[in-house]
Amino acid sequence: HPTKGEHYLVYMVNSGYSTEVNLFHEKFPEQKLHCFWDKKDMPETYEVDNNLTYHQLNDEEFIDKMANCQGYVTTAGFESVCEAMYLGKPVLMVPVEGHYEQACNAVDARKAGAGIHSERFDIGQLRDYIPNHEDVQTKFRTWADQSGDIFLNELT
Asked: Measuring CA to CA, how many Å separate 140 from each of 5, 82, 153?
C-alpha cells in the first residue's frame, strides 16, 4: 500500500545527473533523497549522509521506495512514470536530451496529471510543485484497470 513518505525518489540513467542531485542536497540538506543509478564502480548502497543515499538498480527496493516516496524524479521513460501515477506520486520528468520519444512522453504525462517536466534534474522544481499537485491516482487507476476493455472495444 502506498504511503506519502518523507523522501524523494530519483532514478538516473546517467550517473552524471548526480551533480545536480548533490547541488540540491547542499541547498536542502534536510530533504531525504533515495537515488537509483547504474554506476558500476560504486557499492550496492552509497550513503553520503543520513538524507542522501545512492542505490544500485534493484527492482524490488526501487518499487518499495516509490510506494513510500513523497515525489519522484526521473527521465521521461514511460513505465516508471505510469507506476508513479498509479501510486499517486507527483513526478518531475527530465527527458534525455535528443530523445524525441521522451520529450513527447513528458508533455503527454504532464497533460495527464503526472506532474511537471524540465530540462534539468532540478529537484527544487518538484519541491515547489508538490503542494499544488492535483492527485490523479483514482482517475488513473480506474483508467488503467479498464484499459484492457477499452482497448478491446476500440478493436471491435
From this structure: 21, 9, 19
Residue whose entry in the numeric block shows the C-alpha cell 516508471 = 80
State the average pLDDT over residues 47-61: 96
The three-state (H, E, C) secondary structure of 11-71, written as one string: ECCCHHHHHHHHHHHHHCCCCCEEEEECCCCCCCEEEEECCEEEEECCHHHHHHHHHCCCE
Superfamily of domain 8-155: Glycogen Phosphorylase B; (3.40.50.2000)
C-alpha cell at 3: 504511503
Domain boundaries in the chain? 8-155
- Structure pTM? 0.89
Question: Which amino acid is residue 85, in one-letter code?
Answer: M
Q: Give the span between the Cα atoms of 36 and 7, in whole angstroms.
A: 13
DSSP secondary structure letter of residue 133: P
pLDDT at 138: 79
pLDDT confidence of residue 156? 82
- Please give the mean pLDDT across all residues of the chain: 92
